[in-house]
Design brief:
Structural class of chain A: alpha+beta
Largest interface: A-B, 28 and 30 residues
Helix content of chain A: 25-40%
Number of strands of chain B: 5
Oligomer: heterodimer
Distance between the termini of chain B: 54 Å
Largest sheet of chain B: 5 strands, mixed
Strand content of chain B: 15-25%
Radius of gyration of chain B: 16 Å
Distance between the termini of chain A: 60 Å
Number of helices of chain A: 12
Strand order of the largest sheet of chain A: 4-5-8-6-7
Strand content of chain A: 15-25%
């Protein structure tokens, strides 16, 4: 249950609230999921609302990185003039989250933290060495996005996520995101895919293909079908399709080559979870095949387009 | 453990209001039960149907998901802020003229979503209109009429906008 609600104006006030209510205080930015989750808890929770924190509402971009403050809404990120050009996969991923109403309230960092493996943003920035900048009472540290679910590295109760930092890479420009989602505004994707490529001398120099949500290896055979999580539980993960990535690197950077590799890959070997709502594992693996082909070809086209622009063609 | 009631001050339909609110209340409960503005409808209570859509600082949000205390210092507009009997808002009139409602339950949310779009963009495309109401469900299936009603308000249309 929610026993208190504090609107803080900055990070210092948020940290003070976390210190004043140890074990009870919970940070909330958008609250599209967090508020109803906290309302259902049996133990008391004091909401610390950071949506109006002036030092958390910023989007910075330079040659090295993109930095998105914890209070930036999904709509706020989409309003930037450069996102589609600099990181098209992220623009596509964010625009597919929920509905306009959800995107006007929900935040980018909130999507990463609450959505876990089902988070469109997390799938996009996996393998980009993205991290959360985090501050506690006496320390500031970085948590790699890929370590967020690790019990050793996860966000502590007295810490607040300040921003999502995405190092700028050339391959971000040549990226694409695809997903298949049941219509519901609040539904996580049945399957989502993010890809990025780099081409040199007509061959794939780097290929990244990340899919979600997948089961971890351990305990997979005993896993019951998912009732509703869509990948936002503590079990599911994002995963690189390493074998397919390696099959493409060093090979000709051509559309028909991507088609051929995707057609022969064993998609049913990817450990998608059976779900009552989001589809059987078999169906979701099939979705991955279709979406991966689409995302890789789209990333390749963007790579070619970026190369032409660079050479003034 | 009891809930700690707190003062909430915000602007509702152009009027500054202050009231005591429990921290677990959502905005829709405050709008409907404390201010008795029942134009905003309760549907799914889970951010899917859009019947509860209001404008928060001019942008559409689901009032069933917004904590009431979140809107401290902000501007909330409900359907009651648009027009009045005998002097409808252009979007409301266009909906009526084009048969864009049957049971009317989705209409407050639909109208506010379209109003927000037209306030932000003077000549939205058909795709942008459909995107604007992608978070609003119409059980009666009036989506085509809703988009046609909105199109009629564009400058190039016969009726134009007031």
């Amino acid at each position: 249950m929610i026993s208190g609600y504090l609107n803080v104006r900055n990070v210092a006030e948020a940290l003070a609230a976390l210190a004043n209510y140890p074990g009870e205080a919970r940070i909330l930015a958008g609250g599209t999921e967090a508020f109803s989750q906290l309302s259902r808890l049996k133990q008391a929770a004091v909401v610390v609302d950071i949506s109006k924190a002036t030092d958390l509402n910023y989007i910075d971009r330079d040659n090295q990185k993109i930095k998105i403050g914890a209070a930036v809404t999904l709509s706020g990120l989409l309003k930037t003039t450069w996102l589609e050009e600099e990181f098209p996969a992220l623009a596509e991923a964010v625009s597919r989250i929920g509905s306009p109403q959800i995107r006007n309230q929900g935040t980018v960092v909130g999507n990463v933290l609450t959505g876990r493996a089902a988070s469109n943003v997390r799938v996009c920035v996996a393998s980009m060495r993205a991290f959360l900048k985090v501050r506690g009472p006496n320390r500031e540290r970085d948590i790699d996005i890929d370590d967020l679910d690790n019990n050793v590295h996860k966000l502590a109760d007295d810490e607040i996520a300040l921003s999502l930092v995405i190092p700028s890479t050339l391959s971000a420009k040549a990226s694409a995101y695809c997903c298949f989602t049941p219509r519901k505004g609040f539904s996580y994707p049945s399957a989502s895919v993010s890809s990025s490529v780099a081409v040199d001398g007509g061959e794939f120099k780097h290929v990244s293909l990340v899919v979600s949500p997948v089961l971890p290896t351990f305990g997979r055979s005993n896993m019951k079908p998912c009732g509703s999580c869509g990948g936002s539980c503590r079990i599911c993960r994002v995963m690189h399709v390493s074998e397919l990535e390696q099959n493409l690197v060093g090979r000709p950077a051509k559309e028909d080559h991507i088609e051929q590799v995707c057609s022969t890959f064993d998609w049913q070997s990817i450990p998608m979870r059976d779900s009552f709502i989001h589809g059987t594992a078999e169906y979701r693996c099939h979705l991955l095949k279709v979406l991966s082909k689409k995302a890789l070809i789209s990333a390749l086209h963007r790579c070619e387009h970026a190369a032409k622009r660079k050479h003034g063609i | 453990m009891t809930e700690k009631v707190r003062n909430l001050s915000f602007t509702l339909n152009g009027r500054k209001v202050t009231l005591e609110v429990s921290p677990s209340l959502t905005l829709i409960k405050v709008i409907r039960e404390r201010f008795e503005l029942t134009g905003t409808k309760e549907g799914c209570h889970s951010g899917n149907c859009g019947a509860c859509t209001v404008l928060l600082d001019g942008v559409p949000v689901y009032s069933c998901l917004i904590p009431a205390l979140k809107v401290e210092g902000q501007h909330v507009e409900t359907i009651e802020s648009l027009g009045e009997p005998g002097n409808l808002h252009p979007v409301q009139k266009a909906f009526l003229d084009h048969g864009a409602l049957q049971c009317g339950y989705c209409s407050p949310g639909m109208i506010l979503s379209m109003k927000a779009l037209l306030d932000s963009k003077s000549e939205p495309s058909t795709w942008e209109m459909k995107e604007a109401i992608s978070g609003n469900l119409c059980r009666c299936g009036n989506y085509v009429q809703i988009v046609e009603a909105t199109k009629s308000l564009l400058k190039g249309s016969k009726s134009g906008r007031k």
